[in-house]
């Protein structure tokens, strides 16, 4: 029961790295306009992509406002993860819909620690069993390894290398030119907005607009990407390029083995 709930929720979380993210416009068709330092919108986007592909680590956040308001409890609505190419990560994932829930995540090597809140268990485990799981956990982390089927999905969610491969092998092949806007600020940083309408490969605009915010000063890095349109309102942010993922892990007193928790549930 515990493994099934975790596996389903984390499989949904893995969709955060789907090719339909706002990064689908990161590799645009050439644009004619040049910015102040002589770079075209396409050149700025290409440099931003290169830096993201080369990053050893990054902090990635996501907010899906539609999922927050209208999504199901298995649909990710927010995320905040520091992750690296070695598959280490620290952060949180929240699910949308009424009474969704929140999961704290720590992954180091093959070891995984998860702390779902009471709302998560109530939403994902039927009847009163969700409350029972939350009560037995007593605010402790579930601990296991990626060999456990319920936890192996974390390897994808926490793997920056996987995310980079998806960008480099098609996730960023958009169908629109980007238009450079006036310099503005994001995260207290001067940025150049690059905006485009995606055609989805059909040659016709689908009404979704993506804006990439690339740092105005070199190195030109992507620090925010927004996608808005009918049924879509997603923001991604990118910070802490190259900053190591925090190495701390929960202490034994703060954890319970996932197998032991199931034994405790059977004995309850």
Q: Give start-end ranges of low-pLDDT stretches.
A: 15-20, 28-36, 170-175
- How many domain regions? 1
CATH top-level class? Mainly Beta
Mean pLDDT rating: 80
Largest sheet: 13 strands, mixed
Q: Helical percent range?
A: 25-40%
Summary of the model, kept short:
With 268 residues, this protein is α+β, with helices and mostly antiparallel strands. The chain is built from 8 helices and 15 strands.
Describe the structure.
With 268 residues, this protein is an alpha+beta fold. The chain has one domain: outer membrane lipoprotein receptor (LolB), chain A. It has 8 helices and 15 strands. Strands 2, 3, 4, 5, 6, 7, 9, 10, 11, 12, 13, 14 and 15 form a 13-stranded mixed β-sheet that branches. Strands 1-8 form a two-stranded parallel sheet. The two termini are 14 Å apart. Mean pLDDT is 80; it is low at 15-20, 28-36 and 170-175.
List keywords for this structure.
elongated, 15 strands, 8 helices, two-stranded parallel ribbon, 13-stranded mixed sheet, 268 residues, alpha+beta, outer membrane lipoprotein receptor (LolB), chain A
Describe how the helices and strands are arranged.
Blueprint: H1 2-13, E1 27-29, H2 41-54, E2 57-64, H3 65-70, E3 76-84, E4 89-95, E5 101-108, E6 111-116, H4 118-124, H5 129-137, E7 141-145, H6 154-157, H7 160-171, E8 173-177, E9 179-180, E10 184-186, E11 189-197, E12 209-215, E13 222-229, E14 232-239, E15 255-257, H8 258-267
Parallel strand pairs: 1-8, 7-15
Antiparallel strand pairs: 2-3, 2-14, 3-4, 4-5, 5-6, 6-7, 9-11, 10-11, 11-12, 12-13, 13-14
Helix pairs in contact: 2-7, 4-5
């Amino acid at each position: 029961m515990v493994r099934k709930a975790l596996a389903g929720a984390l499989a949904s979380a893995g969709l955060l790295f789907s090719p339909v993210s706002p990064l689908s416009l990161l590799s645009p068709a050439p644009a004619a306009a040049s910015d102040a330092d002589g770079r075209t919108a396409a050149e700025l986007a290409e440099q931003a992509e290169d830096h993201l592909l080369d990053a050893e680590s990054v902090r990635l956040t996501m907010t899906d406002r539609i999922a927050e308001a209208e999504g199901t409890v298995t649909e990710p609505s927010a995320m905040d993860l520091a992750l690296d190419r070695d598959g280490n990560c620290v952060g949180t994932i929240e699910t949308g819909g009424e009474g969704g829930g929140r999961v704290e995540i720590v992954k180091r090597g093959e070891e995984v620690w998860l702390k779902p809140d009471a709302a998560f268990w109530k939403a994902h485990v039927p009847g009163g069993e969700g409350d029972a799981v939350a009560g037995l956990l007593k605010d402790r982390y579930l601990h296991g390894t990626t060999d456990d089927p319920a936890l192996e999905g974390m390897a994808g969610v926490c793997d920056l290398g996987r995310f980079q491969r998806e960008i480099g092998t098609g996730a960023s092949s958009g169908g629109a030119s980007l238009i450079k806007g006036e310099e503005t600020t994001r995260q207290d940083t001067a940025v150049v907005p690059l905006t485009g309408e995606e055609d989805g490969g059909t040659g016709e605009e689908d009404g979704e607009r993506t804006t990439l915010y690339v740092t105005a000063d070199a190195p030109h890095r992507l620090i925010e990407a927004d996608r808005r349109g009918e049924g879509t309102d997603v923001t991604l942010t990118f910070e802490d390029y190259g900053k190591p993922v925090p190495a701390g892990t929960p202490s034994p007193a703060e954890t319970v083995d996932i197998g032991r928790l199931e034994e405790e549930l059977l004995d309850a």
